[in-house]
Amino acid sequence: MTKEFMTSGVCTPQINVTVENGILTKIEMPRRGCDGNLKGITNLITGMPAEKVVELLEGVTCGPRPTSCPDQIAQAIKACLAEMGE
Known about the structure:
Oligomer: single chain
Mean pLDDT: 93
Helix content: 40-55%
Structural class: alpha+beta
Low-confidence stretches: none
Number of helices: 3
Largest sheet: 3 strands, antiparallel
Strand content: 15-25%
């Protein structure tokens, strides 16, 4: 299942995640954001169990902000899993 997630509090306004059989198979940030960092994060987490990615990234902050791109990725995955009933 692919979920389009509208972010909050970060540079990239949208994150698209695809989870299949509990595995994060694809992640895209189609507009803005720190291109190199987001590509690196994507390369590291693609293919991992979705719940493990949430465990690793949820709660990561960016400077004084209460969230970050990694945290928003975790929120996108959680939203996808919720829609899937997992």
